[in-house]
Every structure is written in C-alpha cells, then in structure tokens.
Amino acid sequence: MSTVQVNIVTPDGPVYDAEVAMVIAKTISGEIGILPGHIPLVAPLEISAATLKFPDGSKKVVAVGGGFIEVRPDKISILSPAAEVAENIDIARAKEAKRRAEERLRSKSDDVDFKRAEIALKRAINRIKVYEENV
Ligand code: ATP
Predict the structure, then answer these.
(1) Is the distance from the beta carbon of residue 86 to the nearest atom of ligand 1 less than 6 Å?
(2) Which residue has the CA at smallest separation from atom 16 of ligand 1?
C-alpha cells in the first residue's frame, strides 16, 4: 500500500512524524480524508482531532489546536499552535483548564476576555475528548 509522510509541527517544535496510509482532519469547511498523491491544498483547521491511519490498520489520534493543514502529493504538514498525541495528553491539566475557562465564562467581570475563554474551553474539551476516546 502506498503511504504519505505526515509531519505535525508546533511553535515548540515537531510533535509527530510518520509514514501513513491516510490522514483524516477537520478543516473549517468540513472533514477531509487525505490519501497519498492528493492534489496540493492548504486549509485552516478546527480545534479538533486529526486521525493518522497506518498501513497495518492501526491509527493514532492527535488533538490539534487549530492552525493549518498543507497537503502535497508526497507530504502532509499540520502546522498548529499546539498539538498532542492522545497518549501524551495530561488529562488532569485539560480538566483544570476546562474548569478555569468555565469559571471565566460564568463571571460577570469586565476583565474577562470571553472570546479567549471560549477558545480555551474548546481546546480543553477537545483534549478531554481525544484522551477519553483513545487512551
Ligand atoms: P493550559 O491552560 O493548561 O496551559 P492551554 O489550552 O492554554 O492549556 P495551549 O496554549 O494550547 O494550552 O498549549 C501550551 C502548550 O502546552 C502546548 O505545547 C501544548 O501542547 C501543551 N499542553 C496544553 N495542555 C496540555 C495537556 N492537557 N496535555 C498535554 N500538553 C498540553
């Protein structure tokens, strides 16, 4: 079976590299499945799960915090502000981040940046979901 190289990169450095049979990612206009040889494409990603499918049928799920996917026929790059492979997610930290974000969203204070809290909540919920469904 043919494969395509996938690189997941964040400002902190590379998170995961592999040769995969397929990548499933959630762009802002919907979910896409990318096979080797796909036409070039750049698309913004949702805060979401990206699934890497290996030639042996196994898979790895990565929590991605938005960013972009860049597709070339022989290489797929996921460039994200933050990304964690499911088994590297610190679940206690994600639950604490969720609790903090919810507390900020409940508060009536003018000092709270609600948009920022909403996005932080989305990141935390995404990490919790990816962890609970895959670890
Ligand atoms: P927190 O409030 O817990 O820092 P956050 O959503 O603000 O969460 P980010 O700014 O998205 O965190 O990420 C900062 C760095 O910390 C990134 O390298 C990210 O991969 C890592 N990180 C954040 N939360 C977790 C987690 N629950 N498990 C593992 N790594 C995490």
Answers:
(1) no
(2) 82
Query: Domain containing 124: what range?
Result: 90-134
| Tally of domains within the chain | 2
Please indicate whether residue 104, judged by its CB atom, sits closer than 6 Å to ligand 1: no
Ligand 1 atom index nearest CA of 90: 28
Sign of CA dihedral 55, 51, 64, 33: positive
Clarify whether residues 70 and 16 are in a common domain. Answer: yes
Which one of 78, 79, 80, 84 would you pick to mutate in the ligand 1 pocket, going by the greatest count of ligand atoms within 8 A of its CB?
Answer: 84
> pLDDT (tens digit, 0 to 9) for every residue of the chain, 135 residues total?
699 999 999 999 999 999 999 999 999 999 999 999 999 999 999 999 999 999 999 999 999 999 999 999 999 999 999 999 999 999 999 999 999 999 999 998 888 899 999 999 999 999 999 999 999
CATH number where 41 lies: 2.60.15.10
What's the token pair of residue 102?
């919810």
